[in-house]
Amino acid sequence: MAYKVLNNVSVKDTESNSLASLKTDMLVIVINKNTKSDSSFKELNKISKNYISKTISSHLKDVGSSILLPKIDGINAENLFLVNGLDSSTPTHKWLSAYQSIAKKGNSLKCKDISIMPGKVSPSQKDEFWLIETVAKTIESSVYIFSETKNKTATKPTVKKLTILTSGLSGSDLTKAKQSAKTGYAIGEGVNTAKYLGDLPANHCTPRIIEKKVKAMTKDFPNLKVKSFNEQQMQKMGMGSFLSVSRGSEEPARMMVIEYKGGKANEKPIALVGKGVTFDTGGVSIKPSPAMDEMKWDMCGAATVFGVMSTLARLNADVNVVGVMGCAENMCSSKATKPGDVVTSMSGQTIEILNTDAEGRLILADCLTFVGKYKPSYVIDMATLTGAVVVALGRHASGVMANDQHLAEKIIEAGEESGDRAWQLPLWDEHQSCTKTKYADLANIGGGREAGTIHAAAFLSKFTNDYKWAHIDIAATASYSTPVKAGTGRPVPLISQLLLSKKLK
Ligand code: BES
Ligand code: MN
Ligand code: ZN
Fold it and tell me: What is the pLDDT of residue 1?
């Protein structure tokens, strides 16, 4: 099952395709300093008897402003949307939101297709191909509307087709532009996969339901191999830490492993590990009621693994990646794990569970030990792990902590490149003190109110001694609550960028 919204994304060059005769529900022209000298723009403007250029000078003075014009005689487009372009010094996030608004406009006008001429101005240090990839990615992921659990009031996306218009590209440049659009489209699809799984209510997205969806994915992508482990099998492997989380729930846990081998047979894989808590009540250390519904997004790390694997498979990327999704529901019941209980992890280390709401790290601990058997070149885990990361970094950056500085830097770079940003927090020896307790090898909480995000990472680091590892805390970035509650599909763009750029090799 694929979670694409658009059926088709294509690139056309305007030198061989007249803009006036282009049949489209919405033609979007991004105006910048070069637009007026563009031959296809000149043709349109002439047909409109300079109405377009006059509108631009009278109505589009502010950076980022836009105006929608109805059908003009002689021009085939049903709507003409003129958008004042950004200049190259404008930060990337504003470029992303400009294209988000274009996608939303397309849906609100009930357009079936949109055609966009992004122009040749891009943010500094990025080029036209970056822009084309970004347009494809952002339109695909922004025409997405979640409607699955509405019966009578569902609004569905109408936009099904995107054409990206370039000017003066031919030969290998046009081929490269088409490849960029394809890449962007596939990343957008991965983002939508992650958004969709996150947006599904917890009763529609249990570990067993995720398992079904992951298995179904191999029908779309025969180049993915899926293995699923049930509680009995995990018990056999000694995953007492992971299983302590699902103990209180009627819903059994599942660990899914997705293997993708697009690289050389002897190349070590990069491993992705995702926290997939389909609902986090906190367990016996129960959470307060307000906004507890947002804990349905506590599986966004696992959803990111799912989304990224679909992107790699769609693109036949030449990398080897293994993705692990640790899925469980954290509930309280008479069977549930109690504060003070001691469990044995797959690594052999015992853990005193002092707070059952610090459950993500218990799942990750065993998944991180498990993934070691793949002898991975790098391991990256992604988890909605701590509320503290919202306080430390705010909503715009995911938090990165690592035992390998090169890996941390590559993650941050990929964040800058994709506009899905991350920022590093230290992970020092001094932070390890918190994991000490009298009753077990480790405690699952420590550090009191100080640096909760780092202390969680310090706990994880006890399970990652055998390889180069980074942890990305996505509690602040995977979903948001205002103005509406929604999943973002982050960090699919960052991780896709990192893997596709092959800078980790
Ligand atoms: N899933 C939560 C973290 C979270 C909080 C995600 C807010 C998204 C938004 C995690 O399992 C949790 O409960 N963490 C605790 C850790 C604490 C008990 C040490 C927290 O952050 O309060
Ligand atoms: Mn929790
Ligand atoms: Zn949680």
Answer: 53
Whole-number Å distance between alpha carbons of 193 and 199: 10
> 272 and 302: one domain?
yes
Q: Are residues 406 and 484 in the same domain?
A: yes
pLDDT value of residue 2: 65
Cis bond before residue 290 (omega within 30° of 0): no
Q: Which CATH number characterizes residue 474's domain?
A: 3.40.630.10
Q: Note whether 184 and 230 are same-domain residues.
A: no
Below-50 pLDDT ranges, the chain: none
Cβ neighbors of 213 (< 8 A, separation 6 or more) are: 1, 197, 306
Active site (catalytic) residues: 287, 361
Our CA dihedral for 232, 237, 240, 241, rounded to 10 degrees, sits at -120
- Is residue 352 in a domain? no
Could you tell me if 387 and 493 lie in one domain?
yes
Q: How far is the CA of 445 from the centre of ligand 2 (A)?
A: 11
Q: Which of 296, 362, 386, 472 to mutate to test the pocket of ligand 1 (most atoms within 8 A of CB)?
A: 386
For a ligand 1 pocket test, name from 297, 357, 359, 450 the mutation site with the most ligand atoms within 8 angstroms of its C-beta. 357
CA of 118 to the centre of ligand 1 (A): 41
Tokens linked to 51:
């109405």
Residue finishing a domain among 176, 195, 214: 195
pLDDT score at 304: 99
- pLDDT value, residue 293: 98
Q: Is residue 391 in some structural domain?
A: yes
- Ligand 1 is surrounded, with C-beta below 6 A, by 280, 298, 355, 357-360, 384-388, 445, 452, 475
Residue 48: domain span: 8-195
